[in-house]
Amino acid sequence: MTNTETAASGNVLGPANGTGDLPEPGEIDATDKALIRLLQQDGRMSFADLARSVNLSGNATRLRVQRLLQSGVVDIVAITNPLTLGFKTMAMAGVEVDGPVREAAALLDGIPEISYVVICSGRYDLLVELVCDDDEQLIAIVDERLRSVPGVRRVELFTYLDLKKQTYAWGTR
Asked: What are phi and psi of 154, to 5 degrees?
């Protein structure tokens, strides 16, 4: 493990040796929050740079980042604008459900063209984002897959004309 490896690299952790005074799983302390803020700014920051910024050793920093990754607190990925990668159609779907909303959400989660599913309050039970090759694929997914999910009563589509802002750097509390 070199000091220049980054949190985004696949091998983010050497052998766990108990260093770094890690908080219990589920607890996020001020150091974890500082690491999260730094990674939100630059997910490719090296462990050495992260360690210097939070005043920890490189190994302790790797342990903390690994715990944050494994616990699902953070996920380090490349954020893209699908419209610049050849996907021509994106849409948000408001979905009304009869019956258990969690069951419908779980079934929608299995559709690859759906990038996220949110259980919400208000007019819709679910908000679903779809990323498709074109309008024809969007129609097919909605008609053949989304509307066929048991419990889905109504689907209203909001087709994106342009994607102006997409951020995941909202900080920590």
From this structure: -150, 145
Query: pLDDT tens, 6-43?
Result: 555 443 333 333 344 555 656 889 999 999 999 988 99
Domain positions in the chain are 1-78, 82-159
pTM of the model: 0.70
Residue keyed to tokens 């980042």: 65
pLDDT in tens, 122-151: 999 999 999 999 999 999 999 999 999 999
> How is domain 82-159 classified at the architecture level of CATH?
2-Layer Sandwich (3.30)
Which fold is adopted by the domain 1-78?
Answer: Arc Repressor Mutant, subunit A (1.10.10)
As given in the structure block, the two tokens for residue 32 are: 């974890």
